[in-house]
From TrEMBL:
Superkingdom: Bacteria
InterPro entries: DUF2620
Pfam families documented for this protein: DUF2620
Designated name of the protein: DUF2620 domain-containing protein
């Protein structure tokens, strides 16, 4: 089972969006930054999707500090292509941030790419 933790101002909406996709072997769990960092570092979760107003600050601030920038990526207000998402996953990125108003545009593609790796 692949566990995606969600955090930030749109954490419930992101979790709902992932659950609506009904991806086999993927669960979404509403979390917070500190819990997510602890669970990711301990191997009790696989990915984190964080949201804030810009997607570039509070969505990942704590996670970048605790996990390191090598595993974190922010899309900010942009909507990535499926190819860009796969490239980031290939690089080992596990923590993603994006703007709360981009949830419906980013979550399905990102969660689908994660599920394809499960």
């Amino acid at each position: 089972m692949t566990t995606i933790l969600t955090g930030g101002v749109g954490k419930a909406e992101v979790a709902d969006a992932v659950q609506r996709l009904a991806l086999t072997g993927v669960e979404a769990v509403v979390s917070n930054d500190m819990d997510a960092a602890t669970r990711l570092r301990a191997g009790r979760a696989d990915y984190f999707l964080g949201t804030c107003q810009t997607g570039a600050g509070a969505s990942l601030g704590v996670l970048v500090g605790l996990m390191g920038s090598a595993v974190c990526h922010t899309f900010g207000r942009s909507v990535p292509s499926e190819g860009e998402i796969h490239a980031l996953l290939d690089q080992g990125k596990k923590v993603f941030g994006f703007a709360v108003d981009q949830i419906d545009a980013i979550t399905p593609t990102l969660a689908g790419a994660i599920a394809a790796r499960s």
